[in-house]
Each structure stands twice: as C-alpha cells, then as structure tokens.
Amino acid sequence: TIASLMVNQFHRVFADSLRQRLDELDLSLHQAVTLASIVEREAVAVEEQPIISGVFQRRLKLNRRLESCATINYVLGTNKKRLTYADLEVDSPFNTYRHHGLPPSPISNPGRTAILAVLYPAETEYLYFVARGDGTHIFSRTNREHERAKRQVKLAQRMQTN
Q1: Are residues 105 and 158 both part of a single domain?
Q2: Where are the alpha helices (DSSP H) in 43-78?
Q3: Same structural domain for residues 12 and 53?
Q4: 133 in the same domain as 108
Q5: C-alpha torsion angle, residues 20, 111, 98, 134 (rounded to 10)
Q6: How far is the C-alpha of 86 from the C-alpha of 59, rounded, in Å?
Q7: How far from each other are the two terminal CA atoms of the chain, in whole angstroms?
Q8: CA distance 143 to 161
Q9: Residue pair 54/126 in contact by the 8 Å Cβ criterion
Q10: CATH number at residue 151
Q11: Tens-place pLDDT, residues 96-136
C-alpha cells in the first residue's frame, strides 16, 4: 500500500543518530514528525525551515499556540495563501490557533530537510513570521514588529495589484 511505502521510506531516512537527538530535545518521534510536517508546509523556502522550526519550538516552550496557517489549510482541505478570521475559528483539534501544543498527528509526510530542521532548529528570539507572498517570510521578535511586518506585506501586495 501507499501508506506502507511511506512508512518504509521514513524509516530509511530516520537514522539512529537522529533518534538520539530526539532524546536531547525531549521530543518523541511522533512529536518530531508532526512538527516537521507543519514546518514543511509553512516553509516554501527550504533554507527557512530551521528558522520556522525554531520559532515553533520557542512557542511550544513558552506554552504559546503555534498559530500555523498550514494546520488550518489541512483542516479545510485547502491551500489558501490568506486565511479569513472565520477560517481561524474552525472547530478541530488540528486548529493550532485555538489549541495549544501540537495537533494530534502529522498534516503531511515530511521530508528529510524538515525533519532535520526540527532536530536542529535555528536558535532564535523570533516568535512571529508572516509570508511575503514570494515564498519567503519576515521574522519578528515582538508582536509590535510582527504587526509592522504584516502592514508592510499588505502594502507591497496592494502596490503589485495597482
């Protein structure tokens, strides 16, 4: 079956040395794969995966919600670039805007780079990021910086449509 092929491929990618790293991070394999699936869906630019992983792991340590658009798109079965406030209210354990911690299971089958990004996240003070619309993100340390970045992105998008 397709599922067994996916599991076999995963075990080929996931070496014993990486399992040791899980212990150092105090993450279960399930948690790491779940987080990697979110990181992979959030990060279009592979080089941003460790930063996004670092942001999410920091949020988890601070007992903050992940607030991942990727989890909302998973629940809705869509791939919207911009979510509505109504989208963020969807009733689901996968809604990381409403629920703390990780969702109950992965939202995709993550690749090697996303798994490595979870195992070796960027050490960062960032807590926020917003998509620029070109596949990259603006990262922010404070909510104030984040709100400014969101305004900057909206302005840039308006200028492109005019």
Answers
A1: no
A2: 49-61, 69-76
A3: yes
A4: no
A5: 130
A6: 23
A7: 49
A8: 27
A9: yes
A10: 3.30.160
A11: 999 999 999 999 999 999 999 999 999 999 999 999 988 89
Helix axis angle for 16-25 and 112-119, nearest 10°, is 40
> Which tokens go with 125?
């003070």
Tell whether 39 and 82 lie within a shared domain. Answer: yes
Domain count, the chain: 2
- Asked if residue 75 and residue 60 are part of one domain, the reply reads yes
Using 50, 70 and 90 to split pLDDT, how confident is the model at 14?
A: low
For residue 139, list its beta bridge partners.
129
Residue 91 belongs to domain spanning: 2-123
Are 129 and 108 within one domain?
no
Q: Which of 36, 45, 30 is nearest to 116 (CA)?
A: 36
Q: List, as own/partner pairs, every contact residues 87-94 make where C-beta atoms lie below 8 angstroms and the sequence separation is at least 24, other chains included.
A: none
Whole-prediction pTM: 0.88
- Is the domain of 92 the same as that of 131? no
Instruction: Return all residues near 128 (Cβ < 8 A) that are at least 6 apart.
Output: 55, 139, 140, 141, 142, 143, 145, 146, 149
